[in-house]
From TrEMBL:
Gene3D superfamilies: PPM-type phosphatase domain
Keywords: Hydrolase, Magnesium, Manganese, Metal-binding, Protein phosphatase
UniProt cross-references to PROSITE patterns, sorted A to Z: PPM_2 (PS51746)
EC assignment: 3.1.3.16
Record-linked InterPro entries: PP2C, PPM-type-like_dom_sf, PPM-type_phosphatase-like_dom
Name of this chain's protein: protein-serine/threonine phosphatase
GO molecular function, one term: protein serine/threonine phosphatase activity
Reactions accelerated catalytically: O-phospho-L-threonyl-[protein] + H2O = L-threonyl-[protein] + phosphate; O-phospho-L-seryl-[protein] + H2O = L-seryl-[protein] + phosphate
Superkingdom, taxonomy of origin: Eukaryota
Cofactor: Mg(2+); Mn(2+)
The PPM-type phosphatase domain, residue ranges: 35-282
Amino acid sequence: MTGREILHKMKEKVGLGSSASDTGKGKSKMSKNVTLGYHLVKGKSSHPMEDYVVAEFKQVEDNELGLFAIFDGHLSHNIPDYLRSNLFVNILNEPDFWTETESAVRRAYRTTDTTILDKAVDLGKGGSTAVTAILINCEKLVVANVGDSRAVICKNGVAKQLSVDHEPSKERAYIEDRGGFVSNFPGDVPRVDGQLAVARAFGDKSLKKHLSSEPDVFSEIVDEDTEFIILASDGIWKVMTNEEAVDCIKHIKDAKAAAKHLAEEALTRRSSDDISCIVVKLQ
């Protein structure tokens, strides 16, 4: 194995290794107008990068799938890395994926979380949020999420959120019904049992009695009015609204350049968290 290959393997192992950022692009074989770009920037914390992405077009017999995901780990890079390698595999292995896609996604999220909890000895503590988007034959988009990474679509220049931010303050009743509590102490952000700032996540075995891993799932038809999709971790959304993010890149034709510009704008606005974003241009 060459030194370059070893370095690449090391970067895969810890997300980005010692790099400050990572970027890439791709394009659909089904439609020349559909392209993707992604960009990641490590935050200012001392721990390794905990954001992971999936951004690819995959041929499945006569169909093309665009598979896009942001996995934002907390106290762990093992769990988001596991999700990157396994969640879409589990979704596509569901027998009713092509006929009942939304149900298949929900089931795969549940079974994947169960496996993560069973592997807690190997994967360690902590957990991960997730937002996934599957573009089926450039015609239908299926989005699912747990946590506060977010999917936003732009139609006719207007932002539309396709995911739900699972904030502890919004799901207080569910958490308390399961014996947990929501507290702003320590700090000024509502947290489950005073620890976790999201109400749904993969993993987090020590908090699982009070957390859900049930995704919200939405479908959207991709038509001539659909311009692009943004998937991003909360390193973007802590400092930008949906409309601000859309306005920031709506005039940039290249998807990779758009993703990079969006991340750089978040840094300009003093985002200190890990930043990861995917932009899928649809025209």
